[in-house]
């Protein structure tokens, strides 16, 4: 239960008792300062990034200082990644994307996205190590969807090490993989269930984003209306 | 009160500064313009060498005399150091002559009196590389004379009683006009005291204006306004190696010392380092140079040193360095009021350091902010390094984001070669290292033109759904007869 009313236009509970002028003022403030309304009060406490799903529902992914894992079919998850980066961009925050294979197709909202691309797994893990130690960025994403090397060769201890490094700095660390890798080191695990057909390539991307179907497998928060 | 800082044997200091043994040999400097001797060391003068001689005359007197040309660059650098040192004492300073700088001390509190203050200033500014003399007096010309009279043993000379100070000094110290020297000599005037005792009116009647000026200087009564200059803010440290170092350790050691000194100097004038320029002259005569911007300008020694250390960790050179140079570019400590909802980096300097490490790790062009180029060509983007520090402000995005269609794609860079079977001019089977199988559906063809100077369609693209265990959604492109797998949407 939040003591602060949810900002207008964020899908939160609406303050029906507020006068129309107050509501219009809130709407004006939300429009003028979107970055101030990008995080709900509960998010400010625990971190995480909200993505709007279909039917007016919103789902919060990730947590401050924790490892979160999102798996889907190989090569997939690009839409989820784009939505996640958009959510970070709305908050006006910095994010780092360590891209093994360098397959990321730059999106228009990339003012504060630090992209590190490399074909080598060892370099990518070292880059994540540096970024988590740095502690400046609230979000670090390691995208292994296009990794050319087999993922099972990464020692399991790597993810525990990253979890320990992310905790003191409060950095939310996301791992995008074709199959779950982080085990118990991941505080949250999600599986993307979407099976896209050829017709999806002709639809508007914001409409497709509403069809994202992440299944919560470990930790995380329930979906909010 | 006025003070004068002087560097004795200025031209020789500039030429022989880093060779202490040269001072013990007969060495003379030749002015390239006049072709005559300009300055000489004490052993050279002892051998009969005098300024103004031709090199032949000088070598006739001292056969072992070494002749060197003046070093104008060295003199300019030494003068800049002198002005910078003077600028740390007072803002009102005059570059009186090469190696001579006069300061107006108005508004300054000379703590402990002129003597103690002068000694404290000299201790702060003098160094083995730059010997200084300091003169303090009631007027500029008297202060200059005091600085000239100061010696190595007593480098600070304070004139409290002008008459007692001036009277015993030889007339030559005022460098009188050449036409007056024989006249005064005939009169038997050899000291300033003897000149001062002559009536000023009589001097004016016989010697005119130059004579009156000389008399006023000899009496310590001359008054003039300083021609003020602004001290050059040159914050640079340098060291030349006798032997090329084989590891980075000696360079790091020096850089740490340089950073300490620079920070001390910056603190003295209330500035911080906004950028650093690190240079290594190499044994093959080239210069390795790197410029570092400090995202959040600072005068923290550890921070400045870390920037350099991080760079040196990954530096590989083909030739050994013969010296080290470090220059700090000072800026005023800036305080920018952040916007209320601004979400900036916690420690921009640390982030810049991490960025440098990432660049060394992944390589140039693989780290940065990806930006789409303003064109419709596929995969047209550039990677820019973030502009941190003062420029690190989120750009206001006035226009609404473009409407995008379809799933975002993950690209193969470079595109993978593919072999395609066609049926009714559309792909029906794909075979490539990443995916293979029958085409169960396709969208296209999407024709792309090349550059404006090219005619016709250069590329044809297809979005295809591949069936089978190695299937998925892919993008294919055809250039001429060659097919390529551009990227995948889902496998």
Shape annotation of chain A: globular
- Count of helix runs of chain B: 13
Widest β-sheet, arrangement of strands of chain B: 8-7-1-6-5-9
Shape of chain B: elongated
Cα-atom radius of gyration of chain A: 18 Å
Largest interface, and how many residues on either side?
Answer: A-B, 57 and 56 residues
**Total E-strand runs of chain B:** 21
Cα(first) to Cα(last) distance of chain B is 85 Å
Q: Helicity of chain B, in percent?
A: 25-40%
Strand line-up of the largest beta sheet of chain A? 5-4-6-7-3-8-9
Q: How big is the Rg of chain B?
A: 36 Å
Task: Lay out the secondary structure.
The complex is a heterodimer of chains A (225) and B (491).
Chain A: H1 20-32, H2 41-46, E1 49-52, E2 58-61, E3 67-71, H3 78-90, E4 95-100, E5 113-118, H4 121-134, E6 139-143, H5 157-169, E7 172-177, E8 188-192, H6 205-209, E9 214-218
Parallel strand pairs in A: 3-7, 3-8, 4-5, 4-6, 6-7
Antiparallel strand pairs in A: 1-2, 8-9
Chain B: E1 2-6, H1 10-16, E2 27-30, E3 37-40, H2 42-46, H3 55-61, E4 66-69, H4 72-87, E5 93-97, E6 100-104, H5 113-125, E7 133-137, H6 140-149, E8 156-158, H7 162-166, H8 181-187, H9 192-196, H10 200-219, E9 228-229, E10 235-240, H11 249-268, E11 272-281, E12 287-298, H12 301-313, E13 323-331, H13 348-362, E14 367-372, E15 381-384, E16 410-423, E17 426-431, E18 436-449, E19 457-466, E20 472-479, E21 482-490
Parallel strand pairs in B: 2-4, 7-8
Antiparallel strand pairs in B: 1-6, 1-7, 2-3, 5-6, 5-9, 10-13, 11-12, 11-13, 14-15, 16-17, 16-21, 17-18, 18-19, 19-20, 20-21
Helix pairs in contact in B: 1-4, 11-12, 12-13
